[in-house]
Design goal:
With 296 residues, this protein is an all-alpha fold. The chain has a single domain, classed as Na+/H+ antiporter like fold, CATH 1.20.1530. Helix 2 packs antiparallel against helix 9 and helix 6 runs parallel beside helix 14. It is globular, with a radius of gyration of 19 Å.
Length: 296
């Protein structure tokens, strides 16, 4: 991921041609990760309906309001504020499912929450943006709803259809996480290349804001899981769900409706979350190792 960012900063022209493909790359990630989950795992999650509902409400409410508080506290300009709040309203990202998979946490819960928050995203994102920002900037609620619905709903329908009709061989499933990781890296490199000039100048306040929001996401996910009395594996999944977001969707919406400057916060967040995510995965593996027993 770091190598991809460096390449994009040095040779942006090599990555900017991929910009029109970002929605399709997002769809590919959503597709390949979803194919790793069986219907039996979803049935297990169905027993947690109330907990999932509460987690979804807390996720959208706490992260979006947290983003707003951070932008006000750091006195960010209007477009930077819009960009970070868009990040805060984004659904759980498919990258969070990758991290849940690598951390051997509750993948079914992670994918289920990502699916549900993604389905709700076309309605939630413009609604929260309007509620938080309509006094500062014009929010095209209807247009944002239509665009985000088109981006997220078609891949979901395709994924569910494939899962229902085709049995994916285990050898293919084992390769899917690697495809997802490479695709995530390409998306991050592309959005870095698109904002190379802004990032070279290092907008430190936006960087601090994005880092604070990412950390707040992990904390909020952890506290919500403890409030709902979830087990350790589900807690880890919820932490990823709250902090690793579908920023690609946010970047697309920011570019389309508010301009490149509004996409800078999402770009920085995309890089940060894909660095902190693997670090958290590493920590969970260290602390989940069984402790050696001493022999008297």
């Amino acid at each position: 991921m770091i190598f991809g960012v460096i390449l994009a900063l040095l040779f942006p022209q090599a990555f900017t041609p991929f910009a029109p493909t970002i929605p399709y790359l997002l769809a590919l990630i959503m597709l390949v990760i979803g194919l790793n989950v069986t219907l039996r795992e979803f049935k297990d999650v169905s027993q947690m309906k109330l907990k999932c509902l509460v987690a979804i409400i807390f996720k959208f409410a706490t992260i979006s309001v947290g983003a707003y508080i951070i932008t006000v506290s750091l006195n960010l300009n209007t477009l930077a504020m819009v960009g970070l709040i868009i990040v805060g309203t984004c659904p759980g990202g498919t990258a969070s499912n990758v991290m849940s998979y690598l951390a051997k946490s509750n993948l079914a819960l992670a994918v289920s929450l990502t699916l549900m928050t993604t389905i709700l995203a076309p309605f939630i994102i413009p609604t929260l943006l309007y509620a938080l920002l309509h006094k500062q900037i014009h929010v095209p609620w209807k247009s944002m709803l239509e665009t985000s619905a088109l981006i997220v709903l078609i891949p979901i329908i395709v994924r569910l259809t494939i899962n229902k009709l085709i049995s994916i061989p285990s050898k293919v499933k084992n390769v899917l996480p690697n495809i997802a990781i490479l695709t995530i890296t390409l998306i991050v490199a592309t959005v870095v290349a698109l904002n190379q000039k802004e990032l070279i100048n290092f907008p430190y306040k936006i960087f601090i804001a994005a880092l604070l929001l990412n950390a707040f996401g992990y904390l909020s996910g952890y506290m919500t899981a403890k409030l709902l009395k979830m087990d350790n594996k589900s807690t880890i999944s919820l932490m990823f769900e709250f902090s690793i977001l579908d920023v690609g969707l946010g970047i697309v919406l920011a570019l389309m409706f508010f301009g490149p400057e509004a996409a800078v916060a999402g770009t920085i967040y995309a890089v940060l979350q894909n660095i902190t995510g693997p670090l958290i995965v590493g920590l969970t593996k260290v602390y989940s190792k069984p402790k050696p027993t001493s022999i008297a």
